[in-house]
Design brief:
heterodimer; A: Immunoglobulin-like; 2 domains; 5-stranded mixed β-sheet; 9 strands; elongated; B: mainly alpha; Cytochrome C Oxidase, Chain A; 17 helices; disordered N terminus; binds protoporphyrin IX containing FE; binds copper (II) ion
Chain lengths: 169, 486
């Protein structure tokens, strides 16, 4: 996901920068003709239509949807300054896992990283609330939980690990 | 191109009301920008392990940099808006001095809290972290930090009270100042100029932002002092991000008046309010307040509709910015035969930087993208784009204009070099942050893993360029002020 997001962002950013450079170059050229306002209207419509399409496509399936209870393995994770406690250290691959996340003190962020230090998903841990997230691990291996919300002095040390294991059917 | 063909500034800078107070404010802002950038450079170098920094000190510097930069962006934006509003309404000088005094008192409290009291809870003071430092700082330090914010907030409320009152007096109502006559197609023989539309909108949304910010500050202060007084952490977070989002955006929406008022001197085409302009600003007024939920997209216990609104408004806020502000700027520039001096170059750059920075921001505003980008370096990546290349470029452009004198001439060698260093440095610096975000590097980590050091070091090198460019901008401003004043 991340490389695609980066690529799209950089392309759009470069395109808008290019428009600016062209305008600066054109400061020496002729003044814009009467068609400029029609262009602007076109731009507004194009941005609106693109926005509607992207919004519908990206929200049709609710990004925070949880697996139905019963289908998913439940794992409880609690955080505090500055530790993570996971009640299951071996999680089966290929099966949806619902994490129930709590904190004992301040707000933390539970970020799940794979072995290559790529962030797979995350959720906030909020004092007084239990937050839930479902994720399905495809690959067996070791995974890490890193803290994603600034929580004080040892925020960067708030790391723990768990294993995802292959299961025979 | 000959200088003589340029339209000459209507009424030179010194003739503007309260120019002295504004110039003093810009000297202070320039100096703090430099100092805070050096703090930024130190953090970046520490993350790259080129220098060693105790994590406690790193987080104190992070807190100072965040609060200092946001505060200075707001201070410079406020000075710019005050200066140009003074062309259209009569503002009381004493209010600006009170505002500046309260601001400086706040700065003293905040710096004391951080560097004497050891407060390192970040500029967002997320409840209940200030009260639960894990031994890093005492409640007194957290209280001093928050009282500093309160002092700055009170100053801003005075500022907006005066601006709102005088605008109301001059235009009859804030609705008229917001351009409602233009929107509704009613006759208005004295429509509000762009600066006044901006002043009216910012006065409304930033006052609301500061009042809600004050509410959560007071609740946090009481929580510090009265054991057992609890606040709902999610409610506090909503209030903090509402305030934080609105406040930092207000700084850009105040500073953009420099573009409206200064660019016409160069292009020879006045920037006028029209129906589309008024619609865009009224949309901004609503969007700025409705969009803050994009900071809470991973707080899944929030009502889903709020997260949906956060995503939608993140995207649709781009339309007034890109299709109105940026589009108009580029239109004014085309065929204008304008002269590119430091002021005009920085101001056009600022509109480009602001709009370009909104792209990675709205993409991160998608809930599904946010799941893997939230609180990674992607976030400092996009906000440094529209601050460093947006708001700060507006402030430096305004400063260059203040000391320009009557004739407009192309940039000299030093200006050219400083502009190039600033632009290249800032563009490189923010691009590295975006790559780091895509590489899943979390933000606000004092200590980085081996795998991340290359990012940090390239970022550090680019930030040196930014600091050098900035030093030239600020020293040049002070030197020329001295010359023109004597
Ligand atoms: C040379 C210029 C600058 C450098 C080197 C720099 C560097 C940094 C660094 C290293 C961070 C922390 C990144 C992390 O989360 O790990 C940061 C955060 C931040 N910067 Fe800058 N910065 C610069 C300019 C600016 C400017 C001009 C502004 C605003 C006007 C600004 C506003 C902020 C804010 C609000 C934060 C967030 C603080 C937090 O996470 O609590 N910075 N900057
Ligand atoms: Cu944490
Ligand atoms: Cu943390």
């Amino acid at each position: 996901m991340q490389p695609v997001v980066l690529l799209i962002s950089l392309i759009l950013m470069a395109a808008l920068s290019a428009v600016c450079v062209l305008a600066v170059r054109a400061s020496r050229g002729p003044a814009p003709g009467p068609g400029a306002n029609a262009k602007r209207t076109g731009l507004i419509w194009a941005m609106t239509i693109l926005g509607v399409i992207v919004s519908v496509a990206s929200l049709r399936e609710w990004p925070h949807a949880l697996a139905a209870t019963g289908d998913a393995l439940e794992v409880n994770v609690s955080g505090g300054q500055w530790w993570w406690d996971i009640d299951t250290t071996e999680i089966p691959a290929g099966k949806p896992v619902t994490f129930n996340v709590t904190t004992e003190d301040v707000t933390h962020g539970m970020g799940i990283y794979d072995d290559d230090l790529t962030l797979l998903t995350q959720i906030q841990a909020i004092p007084g609330y239990t937050t839930q997230i479902t994720y399905t691990f495809e690959e067996p291996g070791s995974y890490q939980i890193l803290c994603m919300e600034f929580c004080g002095l040892a925020h960067h040390d708030m790391v723990n690990e768990f294993e995802v294991v292959a299961v025979e059917e | 191109m000959s200088t003589a063909s340029e339209p000459v500034a209507s009424g030179c800078a010194a003739a503007e009301p309260q120019a002295g107070a504004v110039k003093l404010t810009m000297i202070l802002a320039g100096a703090v920008f430099v100092l805070m950038m050096v703090f930024g450079l130190i953090m970046r170098a520490a993350q790259g392990q080129w220098i060693e920094l105790d994590p406690a000190l790193f987080y104190q510097i992070l807190t100072a940099h965040g609060a200092g930069m946001v505060g200075t962006a707001a201070l410079s934006g406020a000075a710019i808006l005050w200066y140009f509003s003074g062309r259209h309404v009569v503002l009381t000088a004493g209010i600006f001095w009170a505002f500046l005094g309260l601001f400086l008192l706040g700065v003293v409290l905040i710096l004391g809290a951080i560097f004497i009291g050891g407060f390192g809870g970040a500029w967002t003071f997320l409840f209940p972290l200030p009260a639960l430092s894990g031994g890093a700082w005492e409640a007194g330090a957290a209280a001093a930090f928050m009282l500093g914010y309160v002092s700055i907030g009170v100053g801003f409320l005075l500022y907006y009270l005066e601006l709102g009152r005088q605008t109301h007096e001059r235009y009859g109502s804030l609705a008229r100042a917001l351009g409602w006559n233009l929107i509704l197609g009613r006759e208005d023989n004295n429509p509000p100029p762009p600066t006044i539309v901006a002043a009216a909108a910012v006065t409304i949304f930033n006052s609301i932002g500061i009042i809600l910010g004050a509410a959560v500050l007071v609740a946090s202060l009481v929580h510090l002092l009265v054991p057992g007084f609890e606040v709902d952490a999610l409610l506090a977070k909503n209030l903090i991000y509402f305030f934080g989002h609105v406040f930092i955006n207000a700084s850009i929406y105040m500073a953009v008046t420099a573009v409206y008022e200064i660019l016409p001197e160069y292009t020879g085409r006045p920037w006028k309010s029209n129906r589309l302009f008024a619609i865009a600003w009224n949309a901004v007024l609503v969007f700025v307040m409705a969009v803050y939920w994009h900071h809470l997209l991973q707080d899944v216990v929030m009502p889903p509709w709020m997260l949906v609104v956060g995503q939608l408004v993140s995207y649709f806020s781009g339309i007034p910015l890109i299709a109105v502000t940026a589009f108009s700027t580029f239109l004014y520039v085309r065929g204008s035969k304008m002269t590119w001096d430091l002021a005009s170059s920085l101001l056009v750059l600022s509109v480009a930087g602001w709009s370009v920075g909104s792209i990675p921001a709205s993409i991160d505003g998608m809930i599904s993208v946010n799941k893997v980008m939230h609180n990674t370096m992607w976030v400092p990546g996009h906000f440094h784009t529209y601050l460093l290349l947006g708001e700060v470029a507006m402030a430096f452009g305004f400063m260059a204009w203040l000391v320009r004198g009557k004739t407009i001439s192309e940039m000299g060698g030093l200006d050219r070099a400083a502009f190039a260093a600033y632009l290249a440095g800032a563009a490189g610096f923010v691009t590295v942050f975006l790559f780091s975000g895509a590489a899943s590097i979390p933000r606000r980590w004092a200590v980085h893993y081996e795998e991340w050091l290359t990012h940090d070091r390239i970022g550090t090198a680019f930030s040196v360029l930014v600091v050098l460019g900035t030093l030239v901008f600020v020293l040049r401003f002070v030197a020329r002020l001295g010359r023109s004043e004597s």
